[in-house]
Amino acid sequence: MGYGDHFTDASNTTVEDADVVPETSKLPLLSPFQLGPFKLQHRVVLAPLTRARSFGGIPQPHNAVYYAQRATPGGLLITEGTGIVADADGFPNMPGIWTKEQVEAWKPVVKGVHDKGAFIFCQIAHVGRYSHTSYTKGAAPVSSTNRPITSTQILVASGDALADFTTPRALTADEIPQFVDLFRAAARNAISAGFDGVEIHGANSMLIDQFLKSSVNDRTDHYGGSVENRCRFLEEVVESVGNEIGFDRVGIRVSPFVDDIGDASDSDPASLAVQIAKSLNKFRPLYLHVVEPRFHFSSEQHRATEDSLWPVRREFKGALIAAGGFNRENGNDAVKEGRADLVVYGRWFLANPDLVARFQADAPLNMYDRSTFYTPDPVVGYTDYPFLGEKLQEKPGEKKLGEKLEEKLDELKV
Ligand SMILES: Cc1cc2nc3c(=O)[nH]c(=O)nc-3n(C[C@H](O)[C@H](O)[C@H](O)COP(=O)(O)O)c2cc1C
């Protein structure tokens, strides 16, 4: 089974007349929300989605097209994971934000979104041990631990082969401030590029998650052991970034319940989730973005679980964004019941640039094509998903590269 195949809504459908979309809507998802200084006109947020199309780590004109397609007045977009230093990448053609050239290249992307009246946050990321020497110029990736990811393999930087994850080296406590500072500098660069704020990537087995999760963090210093200690690196990053750009421009993404990416799981995810909220409350950041406990990455099936985001919701003092397996119906329920302020959409937004209009019209959705999630084509599977009223043009042959990678991605279960 592929990523998201349990969804039944599966056609590239046309709606004859997009003008039938009503101007106003009573849908909870389409109600306004004041997110700190940002006046949002609806609650449908673009998820951070690695699309592997920023050649050489530099944002490209086609990236600007992709984001602008998904921008709506008063909407919020979060960029794909964006590297904070040369060896922070673990995906081919992942963009960065540590050089002047990258900052300049992000500017048209941001402008395209702002021109449409939307807001955009840059997800700043360090992959830690989710890496390979092809990304780190031969050096050992850094982590909270010396133990590598062993349950799966990684796509190497050239994008055409799989390899074992490289064995990382654990950061010493003395080195940690340098890494905190990389996040701070990246946040400063993001603001220089015009971003409205940053989202600190503390989810999905990236470096910060490698400190948070008990199955990875085997440290005996004050960054390991107790759940409070495991949250320390995240706290330091948030404090440093917030002091640099203002806490009302800082969001944090975490996935305490996700246990099927990069061997990162927690023995007590519910307590970890609540501790994260407590740790962050000290700084009053803009939002906390949490992946749902019911969301299972590799199987894509919603798992039956007693856990929910309610304890985090009650504990956290800022806005809460929920992610993971949402559709129009359960997204509306989450907002209506007050479980989340905003709802993030990944695969559906990837495949439906006009997702907000489709929700408004209750129109059918385009199905996403998993084979082109991470392929480098600047158009196919990227900016060619049809809007309401359009039909996807058949371009025989153009998906060959995607098909080639499909098998590899199946093995990776990403
Ligand atoms: C193609 C793809 C790329 C992704 N890249 C990122 C990323 O860069 N950063 C991140 O935090 N999550 C990433 N995710 C996870 C999504 O943000 C989201 O949590 C996940 O797709 C579940 O939401 P959905 O059910 O709405 O798709 C990615 C997911 C997909 C499918």
TrEMBL record:
Q: Which cofactor does it need?
A: FMN
Q: Where is the NADH:flavin oxidoreductase/NADH oxidase N-terminal domain?
A: 29-365
Q: Which CDD domains match?
A: OYE_like_FMN
Give the transmembrane ranges: none
The answer on whether this UniProt entry bears the keyword Cell cycle reads no
Per UniProt, the keywords (alphabetical) are: Flavoprotein, FMN, Oxidoreductase
**MF term (GO), any:** FMN binding
Show the InterPro entries listed in the entry.
Answer: Aldolase_TIM, OxRdtase_FMN_N, Oye-like
The record ties this protein, via PANTHER family, to: NADH OXIDOREDUCTASE-RELATED, NADPH DEHYDROGENASE 2-RELATED
Family note: Belongs to the NADH:flavin oxidoreductase/NADH oxidase family.
**What is the designated name of this protein?**
NADH:flavin oxidoreductase/NADH oxidase N-terminal domain-containing protein
Origin organism of this chain?
A: Ceratodon purpureus
